[in-house]
Structure formats: C-alpha cells, structure tokens
Design a protein that fits this description.
By secondary structure, the protein is an all-alpha fold. It has one domain. Helices cover about 75% and strands about 0% of the residues. Helix 1 packs antiparallel against helix 2, helix 2 runs parallel beside helix 4 and helix 3 runs antiparallel to helix 4. It is elongated.
Length: about 140
C-alpha cells in the first residue's frame, strides 16, 4: 500500500503543478493573443484536469486507509468512514455537467470534494499523533 500511496501522491503533485501552469499561462501571455476559442479550450482543459484529480485524491485516501486498517492502527468504524470518504471524493470525478452544483467549476468539485480530502488528512494526522508509541519490554 505504501507504493500506491507514494505513486498517487507523486502523480497528484505533478498533475496539480500542470493545472497551475495552464491558468498562469492564460493569465500571463496567452489571453492577450485574442484567440478566443483556443483560450476557452485551455480553460476547459484545466477544469477537466481538476475533475480528474478526484481519482488521484481518492487513490491517496484509499491507499492510506487500507494500509492503516491492515496494520490495525485504525478501527473498523474509522475504516468504514474512510471508505465513505473515498466514495465521496470519487463523486467529484462525475462532475461533467455544464452548470449547477455538479459542474466542474461549481461547488462540489471545487469545495466539497477537496474539503473531504483535507478532513481525512486532519483526522488521520490527529489519530496518529495522539497514539502512544509502543514500548519494547526487552531487546
């Protein structure tokens, strides 16, 4: 599971770097060219890429959740909550409508799905930091 988490985090980081580059290029030099359809296409590509990050974020949550559960560091109830978080983050990958709550540039994809990932990180960090370390009785 550690390999899957590492791969997901590396690809997610690279994808976010790419997704930050496209709007920066649009704002800096491409928008001044006056080529409207090309600019609109790059903007749509950036939003579609952001929607696709839902799958990478879900993989990162899933790998961490399964690893902690198999190591018996989390309870079955917390594991079930983390599986629910994976499903809710995966729903962010279904936001392909052109308007409304499920549009790539509206509420679920921009705010709800990333917030679920941040809450998962906070819960897992709190749970791991408040654990007492195992002591060794003897060598």
């Amino acid at each position: 599971m550690a390999g899957a988490a590492t791969a997901a985090s590396v690809v997610l980081g690279g994808f976010f770097l790419l997704l930050l580059t496209i709007p920066a290029a649009l704002a800096y030099s491409i928008a001044g060219s006056g080529n409207g359809p090309f600019i609109a296409g790059l903007n749509e590509l950036a939003w579609a890429g952001f929607v696709m990050t839902s799958f990478l974020r879900a993989m990162l949550i899933m790998a961490g959740s399964f690893g902690l559960w198999r190591a018996k560091l989390i309870s079955d109830a917390l594991f079930a909550a983390e599986v629910a978080a994976v499903v809710l983050v995966l729903l962010g990958g279904t936001t392909w409508t052109s308007g409304g709550f499920w549009a790539p540039f509206c509420a679920y994809s921009r705010f709800v799905s990333p917030l679920i990932g941040l809450v998962w990180v906070a819960v897992v960090n709190r749970m791991l930091l408040t654990r007492t370390p195992a002591t060794r009785a003897a060598w």
